[in-house]
Amino acid sequence: MYKIRPKPPTETNRIDRPVSGTFDFQQAFELSPSPLMILNRDLDYVYANAAYLVTTGCTLSEIQGRHVFEAFPETEERTALFKAAFEQALDGTENVLMTEPYAIPVDGGGMREVVWICTQIPLRNAEGEVEYVMQNAVDITEKYHSEQENRVLMRELDHRVKNSLATMQAVTRMSLVDSKSMQEARDDLLARMHAMSEVQNLLVERNWAGSNIEAVLSNALIPFGYEADGGSRITLNGPHALVTAKQAQALSMALHELATNAAKYGALSNDEGTVHVGWTFNNTNGSHFDLTWRESGGPAVTKPTRRGFGTTMLTRILAQEINGDLSLDY
Question: Least buried of 21, 29, 37, 124, by fewest C-beta within 10 Å?
């Protein structure tokens, strides 16, 4: 709940001379673009300008003489907050009520919430006694909701950055342990970070709403010679299917490891080998996605004697991230 903040009195001593001519103060009040309304000590409407009446969807005759909370019923909590602000002004203290949602009627029936910064200003009579309170309401509804969205986005960004850093730490640690030399560790780590960066770019373009599987796979395999218009030794084939941002990241890293292995030891290490990536998607009886990486035409295959980063990525990390099963056939 936002609180009432006392405000220093408006400086009027700079108005050091009377207005000359036949200046119409009532017209100036009526035509002010800022919503203004005046209440008496009983909190009944005395007057309101055109901007206020447009904002609230009323005419002056509909609210004049009525109690402010009769004209605009509110929750008990909000009523108490606004009443306290009005009473402070009637006691002589100008104050500001920050961004408190306030329900107002709309044309055609119903209510809508408007977020205002409301300034309550004491108005004194000739004897110096506070006789009225004037409220200046500035509509900041769009700004308020924009700031709320930004807070959500910042929390989401913080979450994603922490996840990305944790992933990078794991990749770095495993790359250093898995590599045979510092040069190899450097090359492997830079390649993996590049793969992570590329999938991040893909997701950012789609506002982190996930992506389709073909875009994820092609994005991961372009550095290894994949060409969408054909002519490459890597082919993709499967139906349209959507994956979440988390799944896209895991699949992209897995494809990078498979393609790297193929380029070093498998079908992409010679001039004749090919790679075919195919998938199926069945959304009946619960969605089921099946992807197959198949290499042919490469050197003779032997099952590795040690468990490296790529195998760990596929059998443990990928399976966990996509909540799936994985099998390797050499």
Answer: 21
The 10s digit of each residue's pLDDT in 99-113 is 666 677 677 777 778
Region at 75 (left for phi over 0; alpha for psi -120 to 50; beta for the rest): beta
Query: What are the φ and ψ backbone dihedral angles of 181, each rounded to 5 degrees?
Result: -145, 165
Host H or E run for residue 145: helix 141-178
Q: Rounded CA gap, 234 and 221, in Å?
A: 8
Cβ pair 168, 162 in contact under 8 A: no
- Cβ neighbours around 90 below 10 Å, total: 20
CA distances to 5, 60, 64, 132, 276 from 47, rounded to whole Å, are 25, 7, 6, 10, 77
| DSSP-derived secondary structure letter, 9 | P
Structure tokens at 163: 């996840």
Q: How crowded is residue 38: how many other Cβ atoms within 10 Å of its Cβ?
A: 19
Helix (H, G, I), strand (E, B) or coil at 84: helix
What's the Cα-to-Cα distance from 260 to each of 174, 191, 232, 266, rounded to whole Å? 16, 9, 16, 9
As a whole number of angstroms, the distance between CA 72 and CA 49 comes to: 17
Domains and CATH numbers, the chain: 4-139 (3.30.450.20), 149-322 (3.30.565)
Q: Tell me the whole-structure pTM to 2 decimals.
A: 0.55
For 325, phi then psi, to 5°, come to -115, 150
End-to-end CA distance of the chain: give it in Å, rounded: 63
SS3 at position 53: helix
